[in-house]
Amino acid sequence: MTAAPPPPPADLDPRLLEVLVCPVSRAPLFYDRARGELISNAAKLAYPIRDGVPIMLPEEARSLEE
């Protein structure tokens, strides 16, 4: 028996995206709906979104320099 695929990520509230900035660079973030992440091009980090909540901790972010 195979597990069901995870549901697609929910859309992020556009008003929330307007006020969130990268905690490292203070630059704007871009929403990657397919991966469920907030992307900081300036810091080269991807912050996860878990259960609809952005996790804005640098130690939880994925490096984009991989």
TrEMBL record:
Pfam families: Trm112p (PF03966). Belongs to the UPF0434 family. PANTHER family: PROTEIN PREY, MITOCHONDRIAL, ZGC:162634. This is UPF0434 protein J2800_002972. It comes from Caulobacter rhizosphaerae. The lineage of its organism: Bacteria, Pseudomonadati, Pseudomonadota, Alphaproteobacteria, Caulobacterales.
